[in-house]
Amino acid sequence: MAGPLLTKGAIDRYLAPNRSSIHTPVDPLLSSEPLTGITQVSLLYLAACSVSSCSNSPDVHHAVIGQKAMFDLRRELMTHLQKLDIAFYDRNRWATGYRVTTDVDVLTSCSRRAW
Questions:
Q1: What tens digit of pLDDT does each residue of 88-111 get?
Q2: Which domain holds residue 91?
Q3: How far apart (Å, rounded) are the C-alpha atoms in residues 53 and 38?
């Protein structure tokens, strides 16, 4: 939420001054000179983006680990199915690559709900 608030503050204070606008908590920290103030707002905006990025990092890391695990499971299952005799597929029509992929997708959605 800091990004839009900082953008609003920069516009209202430096680009299109509006005396009746709502003041933001960072107003006392900003310069009254437009170029310096916009630079300060830009630095605050970058800091807010960095904090937001760092706070989302663990979620992204967990998602990547989960995707790699599901990929490994799919690969192992397909390798196993490719080693089976053709007669196995005559007796078991359900053992197709599509079925295995769908079952792994169900496992993926179940593991997401567990988080």
A1: 877 777 666 677 777 777 777 766
A2: 2-114
A3: 22
